[in-house]
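[#protein-structures] MJ: dropping Methylthioribulose-1-phosphate dehydratase here for a structure pass
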Amino acid sequence: MTAELARECVRYAQMGWMRGTSGNLSVVLQRDPLRLAVTVSGVDKGEITAEDSVVIDADGNAVDSPKVPSAEAALHARIARVAGAGAVVHVHALAPVVAAEHWPGGVVLRDLEMLKGFGRRDHEEVVIPVVRNSQDMTELGDAFEKGFDPGVPALLVARHGVYVWGDDLMQARHRLECLEWLLRFKVETRDIFTGRHA
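AK: finished. C-alpha cells for Methylthioribulose-1-phosphate dehydratase:
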C-alpha cells in the first residue's frame, strides 16, 4: 500500500500538481479504530519512496512512529471518517485554486460530459464546495463537514489546493483528473459565459 502511495505521488508530481514538497495522499488501512497510511512531511513527491509514509490515527497523529505525517493528516482522517473514503488525494493543481478564487461560494459545474468521470451524469448540476484556507486542521475539518455533500467527493481550499477522495487510490485519481479538467474548462471559458472580454 505504501508503494502505491509513492507511485501515485510521482505521477502527480510529473503532472506539476505536487510541486516542491507540496501535497499529500492517504489510504485507509482499517476503520475501527481508524488508521490511515499518509505521506510524510517535507519530502519531494517526485522522489518519494515506499518508506516515506506513516500510519496515523483519527486525529492525524503518528501511531508508534517517529516519522512526521503531513501537516494536513488530520483533515485526511476527518474526510475518511465523514465521507467513508478509502483514499484521499490532496494536490496543488492550479485550476482548482483559480476556480476557488473566482467562485468562493462554490464552483457550479453542469452540462459537461467529463462529469461522468467524476461520478455524476453530464446534465446534473454539481457544486464543488470552497472553504477558506487555515493552518488549523480542526477549523478546516469543521468547514468541510458543514458543507459536506455525500454526492460530491471533493473540496477546494481557497488559495491552497484541492482534496478528492474515493473508495481507493485509483478511483480518487480518476475523479481528480476529471475534476481538474472540469475546473480548467470552467476557468478558461469564464469570460465567454459572463460576456466579458480580455
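MJ: nice. The first helix runs from residue 2 to 14.
AK: one more thing. The mean pLDDT is 92.
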